[in-house]
Structures are given as C-alpha cells and as structure tokens.
Amino acid sequence: MKVFVSKHKHRFQNITAITGAGISAESGVPTFRGTDGLWKNFRAEELATPEAFQKNPKLVWEWYLWRRNIIESKSPNEGHKALVELEQKHSNFFLITQNVDGLHLQAGSKRPLEIHGNIFINRCVSCDYQSKELKIDSKNLPPHCGRCNSLLRPGVLWFGESYEELKLNQSIFRMQNTDLLLILGTSGAVSMPVYLAQIAKEAGSLVIEINQEETPFTSSADLFLQGKSGKILPELVQEILSV
Ligand code: NAD
Ligand code: ZN
C-alpha cells in the first residue's frame, strides 16, 4: 500500500469513494448477502421491491422497522471516521454511498451522496411529503400520509426502481473527473457501482478496492487490499494524507 500510494501520489487531486454495506458491517449492520441479513427467511430481493410493497405493505414496513431498529443501536466505525478525515483534510474528496443506514452522516461526513436513499426517511407515494422525524407506529402498519392519506414508504431505492436523475448525473460526472476511486465494501451485485467504476476506469482513474473477498471489481483494480475496511481504510487514508 505504502509503495503504491507514494508512487502515484501526484495523481491524487480528485478522490472519490464508493461505499457499500461492507463498510458498515463492523458497526454491526448486517449486509444483504451475509446470513445475518435475513429476516423471517425472506431474502432482501423479495422485500425491497415495489411489487412486494404493493402486495403487502405491512410486511415490507415490518422489515424496515426491524432494520431501522438494528441500525439505530449502531455507531459509525473507524472506516466511516477515516472518510470523514479524508473529507476534512483533502481539498477535493467526494463520497458516494449505496448505504441507507446514515452512518456516514452520523460519523460527520458533510455531503455524502446517498444514491440509494436513507432508511429513516418516510416518503408519501403520491404527494411530495417526506420526513425523517415522523415516528411510525408499529402497531398500525402500513402508515398513511398526513396530507393526502396515501401510503407512506421508506425513502430508499428498491430493486427495479430508477435512480434519481440528479444523483446519477452527479455520480457519472464525478467518475469522469476523478483521479483515484476507492471501492469499499461493496459486492458488485448491484450493477450501478460496477457501471460507475467502469466509467472512472475508462476516464483513466486509478482504482483501489478494499474488501474481505474478491469481487467483480478486483481484477480491474490497480490495488486490491483484502481485509476489513475498519482496519485497512484508516491506514490507507493516513498514507494518502501523508504524501
Ligand atoms: P452486499 O451486501 O452485496 O456486499 C457487502 C460486501 O462487503 C461484500 O462484498 C463483503 O465481502 C464485503 N464486506 C463485508 N464485511 C466487510 C468488511 N468488514 N470490510 C470490507 N468489506 C466487507 O452490499 P452492497 O454491495 O452494498 O449491495 C447491497 C445493497 O444493499 C446496496 O444497494 C445497499 O443499499 C443495500 N444495503 C445497505 C445496507 C446499509 O445501509 N448498511 C445494508 C445492507 C444492504
Ligand atoms: Zn401524501
């Protein structure tokens, strides 16, 4: 890592990180593909869809309240904190996260682009009402909008839904203009980060990946650091900031 960073340091003007569920794993937030991510034997792909919500909004809300409960009891880890330091000390750092847990914000990241939304947002399916503060009554599910009485849903992107255009364009623009892309704790099972990394690579960016296991990103990464992001990322950030 040390040798790689010092060899390429002149190329680190614009740094971008894409994070996935793996960066929150050491905080105790289950990833989707780990065994502890299962709820009542449903896979995430069976619940995090517009079809599942249409068919059984109560069930989908029960799952989200279970996940909110888990996340509420967790705190950011050393990996999240290292990215805050990078944002504070580097003049051009940008964070794109697929995570919906809000732990980057809680750690102190100022402007993470939450491309899959935030699990604590309640959003109306019909009007533009949304709120993070509203307390959902678990005994009266699914909740309804106080303004128009339509269903409320969690403010996250479900499988099969389109990305918000603004967020997508911002991410693509950033990929075209980054010198170093950090891919952290993401499996590549969701196709958007794979697409974004490809754009960055084609535009000439260096790519460093941190993951416990090899992924679809690994073969094209310039440096693959295998292990836990909570341990490796603080070391990497120190190396980057020291050059
Ligand atoms: P994923 O569950 O598909 O993959 C997690 C990846 O993290 C795996 O490749 C795994 O090897 C790696 N990993 C696990 N522990 C790690 C650690 N300590 N250090 C480094 N890497 C580690 O997650 P994904 O790629 O983010 O895709 C799943 C989708 O599910 C995303 O869209 C995301 O929005 C959503 N999701 C979010 C959360 C969250 O907000 N924390 C949790 C689960 C799923
Ligand atoms: Zn409404």
Care to describe what's here?
- The chain starts with a helix and ends with a helix.
- The protein is elongated, with a radius of gyration of 18 Å.
- The mean pLDDT is 95.
- The protein contains 10 helices and 9 strands.
- Helix 6 (78-89) packs parallel to helix 10 and helix 8 (165-176) packs parallel to helix 9 (191-202).
- The relative contact order is 0.20.
- With 243 residues, the protein is an alpha/beta fold.
- 38% of the residues lie in helices and 17% in strands.
- The chain has 2 domains: 2-28 and 77-116 and 163-241, TPP-binding domain (Rossmann fold, 3-Layer(aba) Sandwich); 34-73 and 122-156, SIR2/SIRT2 'Small Domain' (2-Layer Sandwich).
- The protein has a 6-stranded parallel beta sheet with strand order 3-2-1-7-8-9, sandwiched between helices. Strands 5-4-6 form a 3-stranded antiparallel beta sheet, with helices on one face.
- Nicotinamide-adenine-dinucleotide is lined by residues 20-22, 24-26, 29, 31-33, 98-101, 116, 185-187, 189-190, 210-213, 215, 228-229.
Provide a count of the helices: 10
**How widely separated are the two ends?**
13 Å
Mean pLDDT: 95
The major pleated sheet works out as: 6 strands, parallel
Overall CATH architecture of the largest domain: 3-Layer(aba) Sandwich
CATH superfamily of the largest domain: TPP-binding domain
Question: Strand fraction band?
Answer: 15-25%
Residues in helix, %: 25-40%
Q: Give Rg in angstroms.
A: 18 Å
The sequence of SSEs as H and E is HEHHHHHEHEEEEHEHEEH
Global geometry: elongated
Give, in spatial order, the strands making up the sheet with the most strands. Answer: 3-2-1-7-8-9
What is the total domain count? 2
